[in-house]
Amino acid sequence: MEHLGRDAAALAANLRTLCERHGSVAAVCRKINVNRQQFNKYLSGAHIPSAANLRIIANYFGLSVPILFADPDEFRTLVDGNFFHAMQTARQLPEFSRFVSNMIVESKADHNDIVGIYDRYQYSSIYKGFVLRSAFCIYQNKEFLQHYYVERFPSFDDPRKTEYVFKYYGFCFPVADRLFTADFEGIQSNELTFGVYAQVKRNAKKFMFGISSGIAANVFRQPYSTKVALHYRGPGLLRREHLKNLTVMDRNDPAIPREALQYLGDGSDMIQMN
Predict the structure, then answer these.
(1) Helix axes 36-44 and 2-20, enclosed angle (nearest 10)
(2) How far apart are CA 233 and CA 242, in angstroms?
(3) What is the pLDDT of residues 207-234, one digit of tens each?
(4) Are 150 and 243 in contact (CB under 8 A)?
(5) For the chain, what are the domain ranges?
(6) 90 or 171: which carries more pLDDT confidence?
(7) pLDDT at residue 203 above 80?
């Protein structure tokens, strides 16, 4: 009974907060088709609405039912900060709808302008000040776009030998002329990374520029966020010859495309948590 009393009191306070910002109580009752006398009992904490009425009230205010029972102080902070309004506005944007549709609903769109093999450039979090060149591949798997990429780091003691290899696998979601990626590292199985990229169509060379963020499950690899340049090299899947050139490079190496280096800058804006 004490629990129900707390719920009723929290709901009452939150409903009063909402009504203050949505005109008169009478107007709210008319729009949700709930009896005014009954609604007054909700506002006073004397009654908790039925499950059906809770859904009606929550839908009217654009909230979930559990949110209606949140701590009143936290609830008022959310309302005063317009967080509910911001999310409601986002839900109404066509870009948001397309993003959700691409993530949840199988897409049969033609993505020939995206699939293929890329050189992937970013500043290395292991070799400070050097540019990491890895191999990145986007491919169509039935109705979904998927990707994988491989990183190789040479040994500090003998650059001819490979010290670390990381392989990432994940999904791609093309939305509003941008490409969102989510993947996990498959060898150590302890890191998740996320990226967002935009195609550059200013010249015949095909690039995608964006940012990538990652966080590992242990302290040996620090969380990071950095710029990434993807340079399209051709169709198909990664082959052995694509993996031979994976390494870290001096930023003055002429093999790094000028457009990629201009986008990456000097690496000073790379974020690492120490």
Answers:
(1) 120
(2) 10
(3) 999 999 988 766 566 788 999 999 999 9
(4) yes
(5) 2-92, 116-272
(6) 171
(7) no
Both tokens assigned to 189: 């199985």
CA 132 vs CA 16, 24, 65, 99: distances in Å = 56, 61, 48, 30
Best CATH choice for the domain 2-92 from the list 2.120.10.10, 2.40.50.100, 1.10.260.40, 1.10.10.10: 1.10.260.40
pLDDT at position 77: 76
**Whole-structure pTM over 0.85, yes or no?**
no
Model confidence at 106: pLDDT above 60: no
Three-state SS across the chain?
CHHHHHHHHHHHHHHHHHHHCCCCHHHHHHHHCCCHHHHHHHHHCCCCCCHHHHHHHHHHHCCCHHHHCCCHHHHHHHHHCCHHHHHHHHHHCHHHHHHHHHHHCCCCCCCCCCCEEEEEEEECCCCCCCEEEEEEEEEEECCEEEEEEEEEEECCCCCCCEEEEEEEEEEEEEECCEEEEEEEECCCCCEEEEEEEEEECCCCCCEEEEEEEEEECCCCCCCEEEEEEEEEEECCCCCHHHHCCCEEECCCCCCCCHHHHHHHCCCCCCEECC
- Structure tokens, 103: 């993530």
User: How would residue 2 be classed by pLDDT, with cut points 50, 70 and 90?
Assistant: very low
End-to-end CA separation in angstroms for the chain: 49
Q: Is residue 36 within 8 Å of residue 24, measured between CB atoms?
A: no
At what angle are helices 94-104 and 83-92 packed, to 10 degrees? 70
